Amino acid sequence: LNDRDGTKYSKVTELAFRQCLSAHSIVQDVDGTLLMFSKENSSNYCMGTVDVIYPGAPFFLYFNPSLLKAQLVPVLNYAESTHWKFPFAPHDLGVYPQANGQAYGGVEHSEAYQMSVEECDIMIPLTVAICKIENKTDLVDQHFTTLLNWVNYLLDFGLNPKNQLCTDDFTGHIAHNANLSLKVFLAIAAFAQLWDLKADKIQVQIFNKIAQIMASEWLKLADDGDHYRRAFDRKESWSQKIQSCMATIFRLESVSS
Question: What are the boundaries of each domain within the chain?
């Protein structure tokens, strides 16, 4: 980085490296499984927050994918426990230092303040990313029913999301969220790559086709002339489409254009 981008930029990245790691705690489960939990320091101290895992994912995918896997495993296990009754992925695992159940949005009893599409959008591609790096589908196979349920949830409710929260919860509820919808077809395209690992060409074609159809529809819904809208029904609105980074990470040429 010093040679390519200069010493000032490299110093900033040193701080980012330290901050990204220090925001997490590493522990072992009772069976010795590695677990890693993030902690929200400036909000409500939630731990294992899925939409905090997401922005840190490129860092861990690059430097140590096993640490990303260690963050996903407790979320998957919690989602399959008797405590979680919703058809979508949870937001968090509890308030630090106790991972004893979701704390955000009415805990486990209310759907009104959940981030239903957001968290499914995240858990699906990141779980597939671990499988691609390991070149085996063990992680997905262990939680296949759960992940497939989340895929189906996105197919049913993801293209044009209803009024709900997203990771930018400081903006409040928003319907027809273009960023959420963008993440949906990227998640579906990533799921197609899982079937490629399983050498199931038919499923690859099916989910790639679904992702392409959704991407084409998104372009129509989000089009606002020289940019894409924040929400499909809000003319002259705008938001940075940061979620498109997954198209680069997964090399989703079929939908990224």
Answer: 2-256
